[in-house]
């Protein structure tokens, strides 16, 4: 090392990733290090670039729908929902209430899977091997449930313009209720083994502090923003779909450290359970597809922006239509990109161990950033 | 005939048989422990673990060992070759030698040296040297990190370990392991010195680089730490040494605190192994339950808590002994 970088140089470069166990996908971070402290961190992105936005311009509206499940593969249904709602807005379609309820139920189940995966993978980053197995055990039940009605387990392509193609059956409803019971009984274990663990608390408290100012400056959204104490949730502040009909809270943290973000995500899972329960109770009868959905989607000239709350924050989709079967331009505003942009500032003067902890706590999905 | 009998009784033969026994024990024990670890972790994680090779996957580690042995030994271009080649041997030899003085039962000791405990502690320190050699010669930044962490960690945890052992030595008045066990025929030292036992187990976990103190090979931070660049049989030697070190640490704890071979009905050897494997299970339990501590927290924990506590324990022991 010394020969390579010269004795007079105090810092050296460490290349973290793209094939590193803790970068979750293909993120590469170039680190400038002083001993084991980081003086500069520079994320290098683009290894998973597939050109989703360009693909949208080259195919018609229906053909682009499956792409939405592959941007953020962990909360695919929220992306489905955002895109469908944007196109519906362009077309002026009104989605039947039952379809909205089904969308909310499935999207919230999907949010729980995303948070459960984060919970497991994050503790794996901190060196605890066991929680991920329990989280995946829980997650498996949701995947089975969603598999029943959507036909897939990860990259869903379930919603259609004007509604949903498949109705919920009784088995799904009873299965979901049973699952929520089971998940609630699991909180006790998670609390005792992880949340109250001294080692975990020492690793998570006062590490990776995000101030409210930083959140606003960098456009942070989602649990990271709420962990810093700003109660902003698209489901509440710009209500969409059937969310205004349900009673749920927006959990917030106080300091904005890793522990707050962790607690916000755990509490959000509970809130999602509440939403699902209410939606199952109130599930109205009626059609699941809007009437008069045109076979050929050809929206009038115009532009539309639709934001939804994904597990990672605000996903916004902006579509410009020129009255063609293909959109003129589709811009995806992804939460992970904004959240990662704060990362270099958070990483300065931390240890490698904390760097991994902070990167995990921000919960980025790399394909979402690369698009 | 007389010559032959004399020859068979001689120290050389005794040592030779002992060494062969040790090598057999070390390999079989390590393979067994790896299988146990996989099974224990699996059952803690709602998985069945290895199931395919042999009944309940019992031969899985044997199959893995054969695979590792048949692999090509890869030496990366940029490594410091002599040190890189030596490190796996240096890590393995002291582990073998430590077995010389462990009293498995009243009679099953290869060499009952009068400085037995000192010998084991000295050899256990050597493994740090091997880790440092491996990390430094690999010429990989992650490996160097692992090596540096390992040295700092071992320096920090060796002190409370030695001081804790000293309080037991004071009570017995001998460095001989068989004397220490013999002194516990009435009460095990764990009941007289519970604090010392806790300190010893904590330090032993750190000394053997096990989670939650597995910083030298912290996977999520350092990829594989000091053995990132090792593969094949060289990697296997590190692996064998790790598991044998766990066994040795548990064996020393058994000798010092759990009364060694003492126990009712069953023969001494069996009691010894039951106690050792119970401690090994405890260490495995730690690993699959706790997250990893951070490096500065780890070193602080030793210097600010363990070392003062171990000295307090030593002073109290000395004081009480003086009063008697």
Key descriptive features of the protein:
heterodimer; A: 371 residues; mainly alpha; Cytochrome-c3 Hydrogenase, chain B; 2 domains; 3-stranded antiparallel beta sheet; B: 324 residues; 13 helices; 70% helix
Tell me what the structure shows.
The complex is a heterodimer of chains A (371) and B (324). Chain A is 49% helix and 12% strand. Chain A has 371 residues and is mainly α. Chain A is globular. Chain B is an all-alpha fold. Chain B has one domain. The chains are: A mainly alpha (371), B mainly alpha (324).
Give a quick summary of the entry.
Chain A is mainly alpha-helical and 371 residues long. Chain A has helices at residues 2-5, 52-57, 61-64, 76-91, 97-125, 131-150, 170-195, 198-204, 212-218, 223-227, 234-237, 258-282, 335-341, 343-347, 352-362, 366-370; strands at residues 12-16, 28-34, 37-44, 302-310, 313-321, 329-333. The mean pLDDT of chain B is 83.
Helix content of chain A: 40-55%
- Tell me the CATH superfamily of the largest domain in chain A: Cytochrome-c3 Hydrogenase, chain B
Question: Which residues of chain B sit in consecutive blocks of at least 5 with pLDDT less than 50?
Answer: none
Number of strands of chain A: 6
Task: Annotate the secondary structure layout.
The complex is a heterodimer of chains A (371) and B (324).
Chain A lengths: L1 H4 L6 E5 L11 E7 L2 E8 L7 H6 L3 H4 L11 H16 L5 H29 L5 H20 L19 H26 L2 H7 L7 H7 L4 H5 L6 H4 L20 H25 L19 E9 L2 E9 L7 E5 L1 H7 L1 H5 L4 H11 L3 H5 L1
Antiparallel strand pairs in A: 1-2, 2-3, 4-5, 5-6
Helix pairs in contact in A: 4-5, 5-6, 5-12, 5-15, 6-7, 7-12
Chain B lengths: L1 H8 L1 H34 L15 H11 L10 H18 L17 H22 L3 H32 L4 H6 L6 H4 L1 H14 L11 H4 L9 H26 L10 H20 L7 H29 L1
